């Protein structure tokens, strides 16, 4: 997936200066713009779920979905504020 994101111009990949065995990935301006679109679409899906189920059931649904994700070895995306 990293190669595809680099080829699409959404991220850059550079060798980590502190550990040359790893790479540092950074969003490009195009990547940041795409992330904004994706987050808007994701929020729209969350809003439709809440409209369909109501706030209480939607909260239960989201909690169960997170539990399932975690049980399968997934994790929530990390966010940098600022």
Count of individual domains = 1
What is the CATH superfamily label?
Winged helix-like DNA-binding domain superfamily/Winged helix DNA-binding domain
Computed structural class: alpha+beta
CATH topology: Arc Repressor Mutant, subunit A
Cross-sheet strand order for the largest sheet: 1-2
| Rounded radius of gyration (Å) | 17 Å
For the record, the CATH class is Mainly Alpha
Query: Count the strands?
Result: 2
Instruction: Return the CATH architecture.
Output: Orthogonal Bundle
Helix content: 55-70%
Shape: elongated
Elements, N to C (H/E): HEEHH
Total number of helical segments? 3
Termini, distance in Å?
A: 26 Å
Q: Beta fraction of the residues?
A: 5-15%
Overall mean confidence score, pLDDT: 92
Major β-sheet annotation: 2 strands, antiparallel
Runs in which pLDDT lies below 50 for 5 or more consecutive residues are none
How would you describe the overall organization of this protein?
- With 82 residues, the chain is α+β, with helices and mostly antiparallel strands.
- The protein has a single domain, classed as Orthogonal Bundle (Arc Repressor Mutant, subunit A).
- 59% of the residues lie in helices and 12% in strands.
- A two-stranded antiparallel ribbon has the order 1-2.
